[in-house]
Amino acid sequence: MDYRNLRLAICLGTVAASLLAAVQFCFVSTPTKVLVDKAVSAIKSTPIATATEATLKNGEDGAQLLASYVSQSKSSPILEYIRRQLDDEKENGTASSYQNSYCDLQGGDWCPTGKDAWQQKAPAFMVLGAKKAGTTSLFASLVQHPQIIPAVRKETLFFSPRRFNFTRYLGEDDKKVKVQTIRQDYLSLFRPDPLQRKGEGKVSFDATPGNLLHWDTAARPILCSCPWVKLLVIVRNPTDRLWSNYNFHKEQVTKQEAKNDTNNNFYSFEEYVRNELLLMTRYGLVEKSSPRTQQQEQEQSTTTRLPSLDDAGMAKAWSAYTATCQSAVGRGMYVLNLLGWFKQLRLMGRDPKDALRIVRLEDLKGNDKVASQLLEEVTDWLVFDGGVAASDGVTKQPPKNKKRSFVHFMETYKHSVKKPVLSETTRSMLDEFYAPYNDLLSRLLEDERWSYRRGEQGKQQGEEPVVWPRNLGIRNDGDEGPFYHPTSSGQSTGICSST
C-alpha cells in the first residue's frame, strides 16, 4: 500500500462524501480535519464538485437508482476484482520476511520476552467488526469472563484512518511500521495493572469494528505491532446490517440536531443508499445499468471515475471510498474485507484458520443453547488455546452465572427496542445486490451456508451454527466444539507462541 497516495485518497474520499451529502454526522481527529479542510479549499470549485452536485440534482430517486445497480451487481468492477483475488495463487510468507519487509522494530524485540512476557501482550485479541453486526453485544458478553478485561473503552479507534497518525507511525518511505512507537501509544489505552499482576492471568482486547473494513490501512500496523494477536469477526445479513447502520446514523444525527436546536430532514433509507452508490460509482467500484445522457457522460469524464482500473487502481479506489465517514454499503461486502486480512496473515506466515474466527449474529440471537456454547468455544480459543496457562491463575471455566450472561444479553438485544421495519421491496433489491458478494464469501470460507440466501434470518432450534472454520458439530461432553479444526495444533496461533 502506498500510504502517501492513500493520504490523498482519504482527503478526496472525505471531500467527495461531503459533496454528496452522504454524511451529516462524523468525527475526525484534528490533524485529519486540517488535511480535509485544505483539500476542500483546493477542490470545491473543480469539475468533480460540479459533476457530483449535478448528479444529485438529476431527479433520480433512491429506489430507481438502487434498481439500476441491482441489474449490474453480478458484473460490477469491484466484484470482478474480488473474483480475481480469489482466483490468484495464495501468497504465503514467513514471519521473518514480513518483519523485515514491513516492520521497523526500532531496536526492540518483535515479541515480548521474559518470564511474564504474555502479560505484556495487550491486546491479546481483537474484535475486528463488522459494525452494526452485534459487536456491542459480543463485547458485553466477553467482559463477563473473569479473565478478560477490555481496553479503556470498547472502541479505541487507534487504527482508524481518520485518527491513525501516519506521519508518526510510518517510516520515511511510508512502508515500514514503527513498532515500538505504536506500542508505546497504543498500550496507553489498556489498563496495565490487572495485566501485570502476577498469577492473575488477565488478557485484554480491543473491539473497534471499523478495523474489518479498513484492512488496507489497519492490517499491517496491527500485525506488525501485535504479531501475537488473535482476531474475532461477527457478521450478519448485510441487508440487515445496512438497515441498522442507517437507523443508528439517523438517531445520532437527530440527537445532534436536537442539541443544536436545528431540524433538517434526514435522508430516507433509499436516499442514504443512493448517496453511497453514487460515491462508489465515482471511484469506479460499481456501475448502474440505465442509459447515460450526453451530459452524464461528460460529467463522468471529469470525476474520479476511471474508464478501467487495474487491480492496483481498484485497491486505491476502495481505499478512497472507505476513507469516508460511513462506507455503509461496503461494510457488508464481507468477502473483500476478509480477503484483505487473509492476505496479510498469510504474508506473515499465519494460517487464517488458526488466527481468526468468524461467527454470525443470527446464530447467537436465535438459539440460547448455541449462543452459550459458542461463547464458551470463543473464550476457550481466545484465552486458553496455547495462551495463558492454568498455573498463571486462569479459571478454565467462568462461573455458571457468568456463563449464561451472554444468552441473557442477546435476549435483551432482541427485545429491548422496537426497531423500524424495512420495506419488502427495498429489502428484496438489497438482498439481490449483495447476493453475488455473499456467494463469493461462501467460496472464500468453503461453506455455502455463508451465502445468506433469501429467508435465512437465523437458525432453528437444534441446527448447527454457521461458524468459521467450519464446525464439526456442537460441543457435547468432551466432543470437539464448533471451532475445532483438524489442522489446529492446540497451541498459540500467534508468531510469539514460544514466549
Automatic annotation (TrEMBL):
The keyword Membrane does not apply. InterPro entries: NST/OST, P-loop_NTPase, Sulfotransferase_dom. Residues 125-365 form the Sulfotransferase domain. Keywords: Glycoprotein, Transferase. The active site is at K132. Residues 288-307, 475-499 are annotated as: Disordered. Residues 486-499 have a biased composition (Polar residues). 3'-phosphoadenylyl sulfate binds at R236, S244. Residues 293-304 have a biased composition (Low complexity). GO terms for molecular function: sulfotransferase activity. The keyword Membrane does not apply. This is Sulfotransferase domain-containing protein.
